[in-house]
């Protein structure tokens, strides 16, 4: 097990090293420039997301496709993921996470547009698409599409189901004393009831649960920030300054270099919204739309909600809570840190 852990750590260090960070963030910036700052259409896109595209081909509504993609990122990515970024990269990681989301809107727009443009109907008449079809039909490189599909299938277990199940079961165990295996069984049954119905069943469930889940979480963040109002200025200043200067250990925070803030901020930025990961466009390809641009605009709003709103709120909650109670929150990570911060809500 030690050898396996060393191997995984070495691969992780390379994958999330300088080369990947430059490629990832550089692609976001490049596409932002090439699309002439597509982010300026965000509010128009939000309006489109709740406006049905009538008489269009597809399996789910545009809003359903959006919430299906959001279901995979709101929670593990921009709640627990942000806490992990703060614990490992210091408060400055939040700034880089937010910047990754801001520029990543352009990447999400581009990959969703390609997914819809090159989508096809399968034998059952359902719409299927995603990067694998764009690689095959757009670039004529079917072998690349096959490789992407294989790795995407593996990633669904590692960065999706396993991470989410672990975070949920850990917090349920810590707060209610329920064994992790019991939580895992309940999650398995609930998930099966939804996904066995196909993409239509998934989208129908997400349309109802995701807005409710996000709304309640945002409300909780607002309550905590109201309680921590005297520390908002200091928290924001610390986040911005720590993004470009080393953070000294103390006050509940670990010592972190600028490179650590950039590394963990950008890495978690990708995890919060999946821009460039290629998973969200698969859901977008099933949307009912006549125009790829229209659904691509809707898809990019997922980054706005994920990172620009929820991630920023989470970051401010965590930093102000640590400033307020450094002894209680020091040394905590991931779900434990988030849970401890939300214990500040009066009950």
Walk me through this protein's architecture:
The chain has a two-stranded antiparallel sheet with strand order 1-2. It has helices spanning 2-15, 18-34, 42-49, 62-71, 76-89, 92-117, 131-138, 142-176, 180-195, 198-227, 232-242, 258-273, 280-284, 292-324, 326-329, 334-342, and strands spanning 120-121, 127-128. The relative contact order is 0.21. Helix 4 (62-71) runs parallel beside helix 14 and helix 14 crosses helix 16. It is built from 16 helices and two strands. Helix content is 74%, strand content 1%. It is mostly helical. The protein is globular, with a radius of gyration of 20 Å.
Which outline best applies? globular
The count of DSSP E runs of length 2 or more, i.e. the number of strands, is 2
Q: How many whole angstroms does the radius of gyration measure?
A: 20 Å
Count of DSSP helices? 16
Helical content stands at over 70%
> Structural class, judged by helices and strands?
mainly alpha
Order of helices and strands: HHHHHHEEHHHHHHHHHH
Mean pLDDT: 85
Main beta-sheet annotation: 2 strands, antiparallel
Percent of residues in beta strands: under 5%
- Side-by-side strand order of the widest sheet: 1-2
Low-confidence stretches: none
N- to C-terminal separation? 43 Å
């Amino acid at each position: 097990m030690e050898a396996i852990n060393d191997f995984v750590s070495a691969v992780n260090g390379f994958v999330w090293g300088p080369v990947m960070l430059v490629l990832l963030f550089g692609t976001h910036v490049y596409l932002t420039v090439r699309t002439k700052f597509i982010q300026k259409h965000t509010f128009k896109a939000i309006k489109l997301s709740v406006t049905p595209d009538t008489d269009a081909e597809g399996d789910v509504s545009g809003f359903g496709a959006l919430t299906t993609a959001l279901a995979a990122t709101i929670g593990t990515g921009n709640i627990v993921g942000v806490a992990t970024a703060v614990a490992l990269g210091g408060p400055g990681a939040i700034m880089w996470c937010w910047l990754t989301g801001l520029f990543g809107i352009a990447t999400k727009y581009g990959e969703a547009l390609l997914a819809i443009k090159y989508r096809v109907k399968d034998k059952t008449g359902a719409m299927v698409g995603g990067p694998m079809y764009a690689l095959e039909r757009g670039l004529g490189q079917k072998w690349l599409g096959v490789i992407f599909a294989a790795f995407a299938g593996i990633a669904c277990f590692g960065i999706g189901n396993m991470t989410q199940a672990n975070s949920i079961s850990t917090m349920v165990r810590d707060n209610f004393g329920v064994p992790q295996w019991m939580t895992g069984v309940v999650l398995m049954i609930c998930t099966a009831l939804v996904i066995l119905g196909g993409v239509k069943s998934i989208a129908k469930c997400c349309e109802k649960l995701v807005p409710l889940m996000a709304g309640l979480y945002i409300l909780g963040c607002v309550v905590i920030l109201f309680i921590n109002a005297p520390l908002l200025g200091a928290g924001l200043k610390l986040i911005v300054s720590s993004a470009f200067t080393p953070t000294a250990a103390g006050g509940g925070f670990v010592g972190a270099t600028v490179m650590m803030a950039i590394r963990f901020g950008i890495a978690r930025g990708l995890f919060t919204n999946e821009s460039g990961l290629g998973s969200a466009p698969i859901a977008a390809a099933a949307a009912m739309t006549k125009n790829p641009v229209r659904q691509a605009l809707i898809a990019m709003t997922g980054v706005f909600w994920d990172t620009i709103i929820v991630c920023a709120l989470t970051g401010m909650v965590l930093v102000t809570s640590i400033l307020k109670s450094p002894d209680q929150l020091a040394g905590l990570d991931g779900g434990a840190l988030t849970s401890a911060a939300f214990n500040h809500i009066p009950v």
